[in-house]
Amino acid sequence: MHARQNGPTPDPDSHRVRYLHLVAAARVAALRPTSEQQVADVVRVTVDDEVDTTTFRAIVTDVSRDVLG
Fold first, then answer.
1. What is the dihedral sign for C-alpha 6, 55, 52, 56?
2. 31 to 17, 20, 35: CA distances (angstroms)
């Protein structure tokens, strides 16, 4: 029998940020916005102060690139 190897414990916050990112992306895709400001508005409502400004901007940029670009 092989010994179980424990890797680093996943950070619960990183899972939450990934979840929020996916939810924001789905909402944006469903709404089909025409500007980055509209994307930012949807992301802002989705993350509701759960992420810092840098993470918020990263999500907006990533989702905008997928939907608008």
1. negative
2. 21, 16, 11
